[in-house]
Design goal:
Blueprint: H1 7-13, E1 17-22, H2 33-41, E2 45-51, E3 68-71, H3 84-94, E4 101-104, H4 109-123, E5 127-133, H5 149-160, E6 166-172, H6 184-196, E7 200-205, H7 211-226, H8 233-242, E8 268-273, H9 274-280, H10 284-287, H11 293-306
Parallel strand pairs: 1-2, 1-5, 2-4, 5-6
Antiparallel strand pairs: 3-4, 6-8, 7-8
Length: 317
């Protein structure tokens, strides 16, 4: 039914070379894997990057850009057990997939923008899709809780400042940010605001029978096995929700002692025009001058001290 095709799918239809980047650190790049495999199946060139939580100090800066580390399966030096990009790279190699994952250092907007500019030029991409594991990337700055905004905001501003490619945002995991205090009524309000401005590009479900989803689940399970102490709470919750688990279901011991709410909405991609999302960020302008993640934190802190904070709202359903 072509007439019901989502705007997001129309936007990527003519793309030939796509960069999918996890924007919030940790395992966010895994939330882009269903898109990665679906676009690869359509014959597009697709590349993976991730704002990394790993300490990348042991890797010397490469000519591509100081904030970029090209992670490959044959890297003989890696910083400790926590390195999702490395283990994903190794798993991709076993699947016959291109295995380079570009890890982005924990930096502020200026060096991160330089890194994305270098990637766009080096890979000749025409579309960048930032992927958020969760939904806190839509918090504009005055909500009761912003979740974990530092990396999301730095990625959002940096990519928005890069000239050239089409820029999109996809969120996967509605409800997981409850763990970090996010008010999901504020997320839905943000989505409604973006819809009024033509920037909400639709939502679509991931179901267990989809081959790209099966590969996503395989990747998660394999890497969780390689990093048993660091199983991703976000991705294990999303996989559980896709498989039909509901409510206080725990797929990892890391969540024991907390109350979860797995639900079918966790398995939806919510998609947006990235520049429109960036335009809502109330502290966008001071973010442009940030060099380090500490700078980003100070910008957010100062902004929160200067604006009225909106109270938590329950979803009336």
């Amino acid at each position: 039914m072509k007439a019901l095709e989502l705007p997001f799918l129309r936007r990527v239809q003519n793309s030939r070379r796509v960069l999918i980047a996890g924007m919030g650190g940790g395992f966010d790049v895994f939330c882009g894997l269903p898109l990665y495999f679906a676009l690869r199946a359509e014959g597009k060139q697709v590349f993976l990057a991730n704002y990394s939580f790993t300490s990348l100090a042991v890797f010397p800066p490469k000519p591509l850009a100081p904030a970029i580390v090209e992670v490959t399966p044959d890297d003989s030096v890696y910083p400790g057990d926590y390195f999702p990009e490395y283990w994903l790279s190794r798993w991709l190699a076993t699947q016959g997939e291109p295995s380079t994952v570009y890890a982005l250092r924990k930096v502020g907007v200026q060096p991160l923008k330089t890194a994305y500019e270098a990637l766009v030029q080096h890979l000749k991409v025409d579309t960048v899709i930032l992927v958020d594991g969760g939904t806190d990337s839509l918090m504009r700055g005055d909500e009761v809780d912003l979740g974990t905004p530092h990396e999301d905001a730095a990625s959002l501003v940096a990519v928005n400042e890069v000239a050239g490619p089409q820029k999109l945002l996809a969120c996967l995991g509605f409800g997981v940010d409850r763990f970090h205090g996010v008010c999901h009524a504020h997320y839905l309000e943000a989505t409604a605001d973006l819809a009024r401005h033509g920037a909400y590009l639709g939502a679509f479900s991931l179901t267990p029978d989809m081959p790209p989803v099966q590969k996503y689940k395989d990747a998660c399970e394999a890497v969780f096995e390689m990093m048993p102490r660091y199983t991703s709470i976000v991705n294990s919750s999303i996989v559980g929700a896709i498989d039909g688990h509901y409510g206080n279901h725990h797929a990892t011991s890391r969540t024991h002692g907390s109350e979860l709410w797995l639900n079918p909405l966790m398995g939806l991609y919510w998609t947006y025009d990235l520049p429109a999302v960036a335009a809502r960020l109330q502290y966008y302008r001071p973010m442009l001058d940030t060099i380090t993640l500490t700078d980003v934190g100070l910008v957010i802190e100062r902004h929160r001290e200067s604006v009225p904070i909106r109270p938590r709202v329950d979803i009336p359903v």
